[in-house]
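hey can u check if this looks right to u? its 249 residues, i copy pasted from the old doc so theres a chance i mangled smth
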Amino acid sequence: MAILHASPRYAPFDGVKDALVAALGAHVIEAKEEHGEIVLLVARDTIETVLRTLRDEHEFQQLMEIAGADYPQRLDRFEVVYCLLSLTRNLRLIVKVRTDENTPVPTATTLWPVAGWLEREVYDMYGVLFAGNPDLRRILTDYGFQGHPFRKDFPLTGYVELRYSEEDKRVVYEPVRLAQDLRQFDFMSPWEGADYVLPGDEKAAAPTAAPVAPAPAPVATPKDTPTTAQTGAGEGANKEANKTTGDRT
């Protein structure tokens, strides 16, 4: 039996995007619907005004997340993504702004106190600055960490590594040292093998092909099932076979 709910998972977006664009006016740079969501790209300097309008006049009460994205090929390489939720309208909305490494984004802590933690995460991972955040410092990485791990130009190994020094009796940071001499990998499956000669294999003898057995000659006269007269089978043979050993002479 199917269970019918009073409200759908998400409310339809009919007319919502146009209404928001009309309400926000010149603050909106781009508006679109993709992947089942409304996405608004707004001017960086007016993000606080935009979020306040969406919260107070369009019932997007909750700030669910602030995320970041890095596009190094752009002049404004970073995007700050605000994920909003309307509990009363059952709608979700994504608002984006763009910035670079040096231009701060106005804080959203004046609207949602939880934005302080979320902005610290974006700052820690991407290095985006937020003007007005009362406590803008790292939140996920350690004290003294160098760089921002989610930037596309950040190396996978990082810049420094830490270890506990028995000599100093404390944790010390050191530059990353890749001690392995050969670090060239082709990531080919070992079960398939490489398509080039490995060192040492050039001394091995080339494998010889196994001889191929000749195909059998065709049969001139096909054999058929022999008759009982040819095999000696029949009722007499069966009676003889059924006799006990003592009865046979």
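Strands lie at 28-34, 37-42, 62-70, 78-86, 91-99, 105-106, 130-131, 160-165, 170-175.
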